[in-house]
Amino acid sequence: MSSSTPISAVDKHKKFLFPAVAMYYQEPIALVRGEGHYVWDETGRRYLDAFGGVLTVSIGHANPKVVSAIVEQVKKISHTSTLYANGPQGDLAEKLASIAPGNLKKSFFTSSGTEANVTAMNAARHATGRMELVVLRHSYSGRSAQTLTACGQYGWKKLPAMVPGIHHAHAPYCYRCPFNLKYPDCGLKCAEDIEELIQTETSGEIAAFMAETIIGSGGFIVPPPGYFEKAAAIARKYGGLFISDEVQTAWGRTGQHWWGIQHWNVTPDIMVSAKGMGNGTPVAMTIATPEVADKYPGITFATFGGNPVSMAASLSTIQVIEEQNLLQNCKTTGAYLGEKFAALKEKHPVIGDARGLGMMQALELVKDRKTKEPAPQAVVKVFEEVKKRGVLIGKGGVYGNVIRTGLMLNAGKSQVDELVEALDEGLSAAAC
To answer: How far apart are CA 78 and CA 325, in angstroms?
Structure first.
């Protein structure tokens, strides 16, 4: 390459970024523009964004209302830190207190899900005076030392566990039940096992049980009915709080409700979210009951927490969700997507499981439906084929064999049909 030849964004990524900052696809793409449900690469090719930057773009790229809110706030003041009050932060905290379940009333804002989870874990320890936490296998909570210790996937954990007192319970993974049982005859053994874990691996008292409402990076694992009711009750029996990790499941994505946990009859003591909260702006929250929040000691600080621009973006995102009735849209369009995914499963033997709620749906690929041997290479092939057809999807799971999708909350049947057609053709092509 001559000195006069411009270096592409992909080449600069490879040359100047950590190699661990991996990109999708055999021939990675650089995205230069987004509008609504679509993004464009450097060559001008358009793609349906069916993953939303990992479920982070909630209501469409360059949403006019969110863009306007950001621009108007930047014109006023763009940074204050948490040392000063600002209007957008107070307005957003007030709104969250009105839509959060139970008595979750007091918020702390940060800029990533990692920070939100660390805040929640520390808040539980301060509130209870205990140190030990129960988390789930297959889970992912962020990239700090504490959240990586809590992570339940070896692929993310390239250093030994560095924070003591974190214990991993079995995931409510019905397709791959660790007890080889079937719901509902299983009696929710995965939840019951938390009690034995506490009795045998801890001091007998815990600070909290923390779980993703739907295990996201682990492959969109949806716990069965009754799971959280039983798991939270066990945690509370041993003095623990219940932390609901809503980093991926909040803002109506699972359909009908603002929060994923509302699909179960249990109320958390602490709840966290990030990603789709600001439609792509870096923002996160930890919200707790006053009883928990008021016990957080001393002075705490987040440089970018409560940033007025991200607060304005988040508040406008919530307003769009309300104005367009997107909680209901995620329920109805999500049901349509679920039916289409079920049909794909019937057609393609490589699909072992189709699962999800609302606009958070996945396909788990296997080499054999009887043995359930994971098929990660099939996912790689489907990825390339679906990209050729102008659709971007995600992947995940401990075994790398799950196709994850996260259409926008305002997606309709036309976007579902476009996604499903590309997957159908991609699955067929990959099988050849």
So the answer is: 30
